[in-house]
Structure formats: C-alpha cells, structure tokens
Amino acid sequence: MFEINLKKLVVAATAITALSAGAAAAQEACSNYTVQDGDTLATISIAAYGTSNYQPIFNANRNIISNPSNLEPGLVLALPCEDGSLPNGLSAQDLIAAAEARNANNKASNVYEPPVKILAGGNYAPFSDEGLSGGGLLVRLASTALSRGGNNREHSVSFVNDWGSHLDTLLPLGAFDVGLGWYIPDCSNRSYEWSAETTRRCNDFDSTVSVYDVVIGFYTLPDSKYAEARSFEDFKGARLCRMDAWFTHDLEEQGVFEPNITMVRPISAAECLDAVLTGTADVASFEVQLAADAMSEMGLTPKDIVENPFVNTIASQRIIAHRSNPFGKQYIAMLNKGLNEMRESGEWYDIVSDTLREHNEKMNAASN
C-alpha cells in the first residue's frame, strides 16, 4: 500500500536529473546512478560515501529494490545527498518543517481522550535513543503519525532499557499502550515452523504496517567459506551469532535454525563480531546499520570482517499493542492512518533521512 507515492518520489528525482545531465556515470552522492553488472549496494555505498553501510540507499529506493543482494543492471538508483535529501530535492529539514506547518491547525476532538502511552527502549540508536532529536527514528515516526492521517492525539513517550520487560509485563499489564522497535514477521506465513518467540509475537500482539524495513547482513572473516555462501543452505553447519533475545523469524523462514546451525547468543553486536574474529562463531547476523556502527566503534574495516554479498534478509520494525489492551486495535489503526499519509507525502523518508544524518554525524564526531 506504500508503493505508489514513494516510488513516484524516487522516479521523479531520477527524471529531473536525467533531463538536466543524464544518468550519473559514477557512483556519487546526491546523484542518480545506473546499476552496472556486478554492482552491489555495498560497493555502490563505498564508492559514493566511503562506507559499506548501504541502508540509506535502500531507504531511498525501497520500492524499486526487491532483493538487495541481486540488483538488476540498468536499474536507476537515487543516491541520497550527505544531508539525506534526494537528488535535486529540498533538504529533509525543510520538508519536515513544511509538513509540520501544514498540520499545525489540526483540530483535536472535543471529547477527552487520554494520551497514548508510547514505550520505547533507550540506547538503540538510530531507532530509539534519548540522545537523538525526537528520541530517534522510530519515536519520531510514531509521534508524527499520531498527528497525521486525520489524527490529533496527544501522547507521551517513556524509555525503558529493559527490553524484555516490554513484552513480558509492561505492555501485557497495560502500563503502556504501544511499544516501539519490534521486529514482527508476516504472521500470515505458516510455511515454516515457528519458534516459541515468533509464536508469541504473532499470537499475543497486534502490529502496525511496517514502520521501517531493515536489511539484515551476514558477516564473516574474509577467508571463511561462508563469505561466499550463495544461499542459506550453504550456512548449514555454521555457528551463527545473533544477540540474545533478538528475533530469529527471518532465519527460521529460510531454514536457518538448530540443529541445521548452532546459535551463539551474546548480548551485543560487538560481542558477535568479536566471536567471529576469535573463531567462536563463523557468521554474525544483524542490521547493516548496526554492523557499520559496531565495526566503526571497534576500529574494524572490511579487511577484518566482510559482509556476504549474496545472502541477506529484510526485517520489518513495527509498532505493537498487546491484544489485552481494549484500545489497542484503535491505536494501531490510528498509527496506520498516520504512517500511510507520511509515506504518501514523503514525510516518512524525510524523518528517516534526517535522523540517520544526525546519527551518522555523531558517530563520525565520536570517531575523530
């Protein structure tokens, strides 16, 4: 349901640049690039931005990229500018300000409605972090959605860093209405055997449409046999590291589960990368944005750890409400209306790119 207008946004940016200068011949930021045979999002990102973190390119072209590991030659990609805006477009900050001005006169209901209590976890930059403007990407999207799509609902945001308590107690007991930052599978897909955690997320919670699609990469030593794995079947027998309590439904869907593989479950992404470096794990798997951040903080380069260019998954972050909440479905419907409008207007992309710009500037400042 989000495809039409976001695709128009990317196509429009492509058309404007093509008319003025033709398709970009080089992989340069703030331009449009025609995919060549052998290109991957990672190689394009390295050439254009000097980083293998290609999530921003994926965000800008989400509706024309179906498989980040298999780009079709001839596909024209919009490569975002350094501030996150699309080629020949206004800055994200300008577009956000315009959207806020358009919605400044939304009328609230005359009937008292309690503020929606939003639950987020901290220290999860760029997704939810009190050190980022508006609380991070997901918090900004959720907060804005409650004042779009005909909504004008007051809300409060609380950060609780004990993520396990969100699903175990805080949402089930009604202490909060909706929770942010949760990867929820396609619960209509019963073609694979669900784990207990996947079953809980599908059976106990209602969720919005996808708020943010994340590319999940698979990272190995450069000389590992798994570095060139061409399919998930090739991971059979591997020791695969993903952080404790994190989702695994994307792996389950591809047949990557025990006893086919051995799971290694430390606490942090850095520990997973260290497990690969020290040989206690063969493969580490999590978000490409998080991988880039962790590698930067650890002083690692693609010479130390590489991303498999042939295999990845896409996971959807959604806003959830426990099914025992009598207003949960109402809140989910409200959020969906707001998110739909934001996708159609382009405000969704503006908020995402602005938050990633801020986050990356902080990461760069910390490393210098």
Automatic annotation (TrEMBL):
Keywords: Signal. It comes from the Bacteria. Residues 1-23 form the signal peptide. Gene3D superfamilies: LysM domain, Periplasmic binding protein-like II. Residues 31-79 form the LysM domain. The keyword Secreted does not apply. The keyword Signal applies. CDD domains: LysM (cd00118). This is Amino acid ABC transporter substrate-binding protein, PAAT family. It comes from Ruegeria intermedia.
